[in-house]
Amino acid sequence: MSDRYFEDYVEGSTEELGSIKVSEDEILEFATKYDPQPFHVDPPAAAAGPYGGLIASGWHTASLMMKLVVRNYLSAASSLGSPGIDELRWLKPVRPGDELRARVQVLEARPSKSKPDRGLLRSLVELRNQDDETVFTAVALNFVLRRWATAT
Amino acid sequence: MSDRYFEDYVEGSTEELGSIKVSEDEILEFATKYDPQPFHVDPPAAAAGPYGGLIASGWHTASLMMKLVVRNYLSAASSLGSPGIDELRWLKPVRPGDELRARVQVLEARPSKSKPDRGLLRSLVELRNQDDETVFTAVALNFVLRRWATAT
Q: Which is nearest to B87 in space by CA: B141, B142, B139, B143?
């Protein structure tokens, strides 16, 4: 992934981005810092709560998605950051021990008119768990350098 | 915030949710785990990169927003989790030393038809920095229990 540019993202193409396991320790650590709701940080309360057990903060799930996106989709040579996310959905709970694998589809690759050295990528990223249930989807926007621009 | 229910979120109302400081150490720690792009984890590379210095991962910024939302907007007594985010925008970089304050507006509070014990909240959450620049916005969805339902 070290050498990938805007021209290499083909509209309509899909890619697998690998998988990642989620541990109870990591769920507790993340949520204690950023999202300390009972069903994220307190196993007994979570067991008696709306999800019947501990679940990962949705922001933790999104961050795990990002880890796979940085590892296998974006390139340090061309990634210029993101203006945002168009739609993000937490479809199913993520629980301790789950293994999430990511898949991405390039929805749109549009050259920038105002900044000709880059383009804007719209990508649908999905996470599925070990039971093949889709737990998370997001339409991500990313600015990516064009190949010729890297010489400047 | 320990005793707040669906009925207490009034459409059109706005609230301040307090503020939080962002340190370089925390930016590096979060991004090293979840978003290790050069402008998030490598200060010299970041200084030479598109943002002219280190910036926080957008997922870190979102997680800091969530921290203030859990502290001052949602209630452990009634918060049932979230189906997603309708639109999220990273408008300005968040840099080490920034202080972010959150404000929220209740866009819509809609009783659920299929599950009468709860309602769906649509909220616009904004983060501003110490220079009063809006750095982040998101339209968040949250399921929240109705007051009468907590007796069951």
A: B139
